[in-house]
Specification:
Blueprint lengths: L2 E5 L6 H12 L2 E4 H9 L3 H25 L4 E4 L10 H8 E7 L2 H10 L12 H19 L4 E4 L6 H17 L3
Parallel strand pairs: 1-3, 1-4, 2-3, 4-5
Helix pairs in contact: 1-7, 2-3, 3-4, 5-6
Amino acid sequence: MKSIILIGYMGAGKTTVGRHLAQKLGRTFYDLDWYIETRYRKPIHQIFSESGESGFREIEREMLHEAAAFEDIVLSCGGGTPCYFDNIDFMNEVGHTVYLKCSPETLAAHLKMGRSIRPLIQGKTPEELDAFIRESLKQRSPFYEKARIIIDVPYLGAKERVENIAAVIAGKIAQDKD
């Protein structure tokens, strides 16, 4: 079976939804950033600082190709992953790509409730966060929109909403078998 590859902006719920989707479908869940950290035995921010963004993106591409070779998985990618090299075309070729599409307001709400500290947004005021998200989405949306399946994601504050999104994705994957 083809892998299911979740893409979207940071805070869209790729990891949260991905875990539920994998459990629902009896697949193994992988988060690409965690996979990179495990393989390189370093946190992403350290790889970034040692290798620069271009070096990190090369590593990310290599690890994407490696992880995508696994069978029957749900793979959550970093927000920038589809935007570099031919990554989105590769993902579309090897898997069912799913774009978790959120409004800037929903992304800001998710990022505010997130447990992990995200260096790109650390210390931003609500106004700065909103402007940052809107500008980033403008740049990244053309890549995200190439996904085979696009799911509009509301605020995911309740477990039932996460489970509902996972169920919608599972239904669309069942229809999209190729």
